[in-house]
Amino acid sequence: MEVTGKIKMVDTTKEVGSGGFKKRDIVVTTDEQYPQHILVQFVQDKCDLLNNYQVGDAVKIDINLRGREWTNPQGEIVYFNTVQGWRIGKVQADASQAHNVPMPATPTFEPAANFTEEEHDDLPF
After folding, report:
1. How many Å from the N-terminal Cα to the C-terminal Cα in the chain?
2. Which of 21, 42, 64 is nearest to 7 (CA)?
3. Please, how many CA atoms are within 13 Å of residue 120, restricted to the half-sphere of its CB?
4. Cα–Cα distance, 74 to 17 (Å, whole number)
5. How far is CA 36 from the centre of its chain?
6. Which secondary structure element, helix H or strand E, spans residue 98, and what is its range?
7. Contact 83/36 with Cβ under 8 angstroms?
8. What is the pLDDT along the chain (125 residues), one digit of tens a residue?
9. I need a labelling partner for 111 at 20 to 30 A (CA). Which of 14, 31, 39, 125 fits?
10. Parallel, antiparallel, or unpaired for β 21-30 and 58-71?
């Protein structure tokens, strides 16, 4: 799966817990009729992939959806979803126009001037 849009926010790398788990968030705003602000999380060694990106860059991020179950202190089961990025790349501004390559003009033919009914009837049906 992938998310494409412009970067709205790039967060700093944060260490969570005592085990040294690292995460870094990025928000991408999609380019569609109703733009969406999608939070994508990069973890561990993938955090460094965001070092060369800044707000306003047009990007494509390859993602995986992650879900987990957690039992809270009251004994209730709670579910969490995460959009996890694993690759990111800049999108060229002209990439959308590359798909709209104009078709070459079709050659025009002059109509036959001395056409008779008998000459064209060579079809087998």
Report:
1. 53
2. 42
3. 5
4. 22
5. 12
6. helix 95-98
7. no
8. 999 999 999 999 999 988 889 999 999 999 999 999 999 999 999 999 999 999 999 999 999 999 999 999 999 999 999 999 999 999 986 545 545 555 556 566 666 666 566 655 565 65
9. 125
10. unpaired
